[in-house]
């Protein structure tokens, strides 16, 4: 039973590795890049000219009000400017 689970585990790991390929870009020393990628272009984020970094929103203090009608002091990166306590609650 242990041998079967080890073999199945090895097969799963080998199947997961198939979807990743080595980057086809070259470094400044004209050597192939060693990073692996899952992108369709076959290039890592350093070499892919169409790669766009995810937009990061700045941390702000929540614009919601507490039950005592005082400003919330929680911080959030959500685009709405409200913390997890006030995001879905339209009453406060």
Please give the domain count.
2
- Low-pLDDT runs: none
Largest sheet: 2 strands, antiparallel
Largest sheet: spatial strand order: 1-2
Q: What is the rounded Rg?
A: 24 Å
The shape, in one word, is flat
Global mean pLDDT: 83
Query: Count of helices?
Result: 1
Query: What is the H/E order?
Result: HEEEE
How far do the termini sit from each other?
57 Å
Q: Work out the strand percent.
A: 5-15%
Essential attributes:
92 residues; alpha+beta; two-stranded antiparallel ribbon; two-stranded antiparallel sheet; 1 helix; 4 strands
Sum this structure up briefly.
The chain is an alpha+beta fold. The protein folds into two domains: 21-53, no CATH class; 54-92, no CATH class. Helices cover 18% and strands 9% of the residues.
Write up what this structure looks like.
- By secondary structure, this protein is α+β, with helices and mostly antiparallel strands.
- The chain has 2 domains: 21-53, no CATH class; 54-92, no CATH class.
- The chain has 1 helix and 4 strands; from the N terminus they run H-E-E-E-E.
- The chain has one helix spanning 2-18, and strands spanning 21-22, 36-37, 60-61, 75-76.
- Strands 1-2 form a two-stranded antiparallel ribbon.
- The longest helix has 17 residues, at 2-18.
- The protein is flat and about 60 Å long.
- The mean pLDDT is 83.
